[in-house]
Design goal:
Helix content is 27%, strand content 18%. With 310 residues, it is α/β, with parallel strands linked by helices. The chain has 2 domains: 191 residues, DHBP synthase, CATH 3.90.870.10; 76 residues, no CATH class. The protein has 8 helices and 14 strands. The protein has a 10-stranded mixed beta sheet, sandwiched between helices. Helix 1 packs across helix 5 and helix 7 packs parallel to helix 8. It is globular, with a radius of gyration of 19 Å. The structure holds threonylcarbamoyladenylate (TXA) and magnesium ion. The site of threonylcarbamoyladenylate has 27 residues, from strand 5 and strand 6.
């Protein structure tokens, strides 16, 4: 894809990390690996840089971004931490957990990051390359998943380039992401109540969280769409279907032949990208059990199968 920028592919070494940090400090857009999916990063305190994220992704302005920080101390400068939030951060950071918390009045964040909400979504990721870039930049980075809005999320640098080549300054290629689906999002209200806004790799946090109330704004739209119809709970493919298998059900591509849900989560988006690129006009997906990580996998699959943009 051609575009305004010659997108650089940086390697996961000190020179690549230094270049990524330089581009970001100067207000650029760099796709960075995390343990969940690749994120499209920009300085969270820089209005024009944050505006460029929305433009590059084609993301609607009402959908706020996750702010990535190097430490709990940096997070505390941006949001109020009820005790329960501090406990969750202590248990899961650095890692695949995003906390939605009351935004501090004095938080130095571009207004567009929170899309006018009184809350801010914060995550301290564990990926070594992401951590190194955060430390070198020396401030928080806003980063949604590094895909054009509505498309399948990226778990490799090639997935990033499939929709953002020419639209961003660089991608730091650190190979495939280990968890493979986006972070679990929990909102902690000022009274300590916890709500699950998006299921993710930290499946146990569903217990005790209110799952009924609201969702992350971005979760309402059709999402993760491979650009062709997706049929779920398929026991086998029709002639014109690209089959994504699981467990005992084989496919053109298989989430996990042994039925391992962690492997299935890790491979989910790669399989959807394969299906999107295949010559077949439709995709079918074998059933995945609705338990543990399967809850997050099925959440993404249902959205991938949702036919129309609301
Ligand atoms: O694993 C992840 O979370 C990845 C990596 C890059 O960190 N990021 C990611 O970002 O998935 P994105 O933008 O694709 O999804 C963020 C979700 C959206 O559904 C957005 O609406 C929600 O988080 N969100 C952000 N700020 C929020 C807030 N203040 N209140 C409620 N939801 C929020
Ligand atoms: Mg996304």
């Amino acid at each position: 894809m051609s575009g305004k920028y010659a997108t650089e592919r940086l390697s996961d070494d000190p020179a690549g990390i230094a270049r990524a940090a330089d581009l970001l400090r100067a207000g650029g857009l760099v796709a960075l690996p995390t343990e969940t999916v690749y994120g499209l990063a920009a300085r969270a305190d820089d209005d024009p840089a944050v505006a460029r994220i929305y433009r590059a992704k084609g993301r609607p302005g009402f959908n706020p971004l996750i702010v990535h920080v190097a430490s709990l101390a940096s997070a505390e400068a941006l949001a109020e931490f009820p005790d329960r939030a501090r406990e969750l951060a202590a248990a899961h950071w650095p890692g695949p957990l995003t906390l939605v918390l009351p935004r501090r009045r004095d938080a130095t964040l571009a207004a567009a990051v929170t899309a006018g909400l009184p809350t801010v979504a914060l995550r301290c990721p564990a990926h070594p390359a992401m951590k190194a870039v955060l430390e070198q930049v020396g401030g928080p980075l806003a980063a949604p998943s590094a895909n054009r809005s509505g498309f399948v999320s990226p778990t490799t640098a090639d997935h990033v380039l499939a929709t953002l080549d020419g639209r961003i300054d660089a991608v730091l290629d650190a190979g495939p992401c280990s968890a493979g689906i986006e972070s679990t999002i929990l909102a902690v209200r000022p009274d300590g109540r916890v709500e699950l806004l998006r299921p993710g790799p930290i499946a146990s946090e569903k217990d005790g969280a209110d799952t009924s109330a609201i969702e992350a704004p971005g979760q309402l739209a059709t999402h993760y769409a491979p650009g062709k119809p997706v049929r779920l709970a398929a026991t086998g493919p029709a002639a014109d279907e690209f089959m994504i298998g699981f467990g005992g059900i084989p496919g053109d591509c298989t989430l996990s032949p042994s039925g391992d849900l962690a492997v299935a989560a890790q491979r989910l988006y790669a399989c959807l990208h394969h299906g999107a690129r295949s010559g077949k006009p439709r995709i079918a997906v074998a059933p995945v059990p609705e338990e543990g990580l399967g809850l997050a996998i099925n959440d993404r699959l249902r959205r991938a199968a949702c036919p129309v943009e609301p």
